[in-house]
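FW: tagging you since you asked about this chain on Friday. Here's the raw sequence from the shared folder, copied in full. Didn't touch anything.
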Amino acid sequence: MVLAHLLHVSGFSFSMAHCNFGLRGEESQEDEDFIREMAKQMDVKVYVKKFETKQYGSVRGISTQMAARELRYNWFEELLALNSYSGLLLAHHADDQLETVLLNMLRGTGIEGFYGMGETRGQIIRPLLPFHRTEIHDFALMNNMDWREDSSNSQIDYKRNFLRHRIVPELRNFDQGAAEILQYSFDRIKDTGKAFFYLFDSWLENNLQKDGDFQYINIERFSKASGQRTLLYYWLQSFGFNFMQISDLYRSMKKQESGKTFYSREFSLNLDREFLILGPKDSEHAEMEVEESAIELKIGKTHYEILVLNGDFETDRSSGNAMLDRDKLNFPLKVRNWVTGDKFRPLGMKKFKKISDLLIDLKVPLIHKRNIKVLCSGEDIVWVIGLRIDDRYKLSQFTKTALYFKMTKNAESV
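HL: got it, structure written out here
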């Protein structure tokens, strides 16, 4: 109400938005009626929405407080978009900020948890954040303002209320300036955090290698860095990894448990011999057929041009491409994932070899092994794609027509 009063007397054009969560029966309705009357007195538009808060929380499997938060912010975003408002003003104050940072600490926050709420974030603006609740309360009394108290604020069932009514008063009893001193400390930590993220971005730029969808960090070089778990966390958190997983990864690195893999919802991280390798989770591509008339083959982001060569042609000996004796192939060819037990005759060999052994010999990291595909003619594997062709299907002096799979220049690694 103080925020609305300040906007009103300052001549700003604004509207009000009120959420009725229906959690306090008649009291909730009285709050809504009060807001409607205040909006009428100020001659401003008011938006009101009723929510089935507990039902929403039950369906989502979250607390009532979190349900109310999601509902109101989702609705606020809708109002901003539909009405082209320039901003959303919220009346959080310095005591709310202190409680927020303390709550973050109780949740086991990283350095960004000390940031608390920003005075601005996108379209959200918190103009009262520098002021304490007592200052706002005194201002309301001096200006004969009306307001309503939410009765649930006096309960200590919620962590925030427990901090507000039990912990913060005890701190102030110990030292009257405790809240201000804590906020000063938080501000210093926040500035330290800004310096850290500035330096972290530089460290990541100098140590992270990228190849297509995959990212690599050299383990030997990384082992010389300080604060390794923190560096890992801020590299991997945006890919869905949490700090517990990072701690497990850190222990595995110390034990040199090469080959171990960690998963988030969409990504996997492989602890290889020389590198930490981050990439998409295993791709379960369905089998694909390559018709006799096909002119290209797409496997993920890797594209191959398919050429038919007749007469004299130069042999491409690149392991990434394949040249096969077309007359020996049975169409349609088939592309599939390799499976345990698959065998073929690698180029230059007269005996069969398991693909799993070939991948070991080539020191293919585990995270890449799972994405290897094979090209089959009938039941024969004619090409471990991107690695080796089968010796039985190589070009010879008797070859009349070659089928040439040529990786395009803009292709990325499998």
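FW: The CA atoms of residues 334 and 376 lie 5 Å apart.
HL: agreed, and Residues 410-414 have pLDDT under 50 and may be disordered.
FW: great, closing this out.
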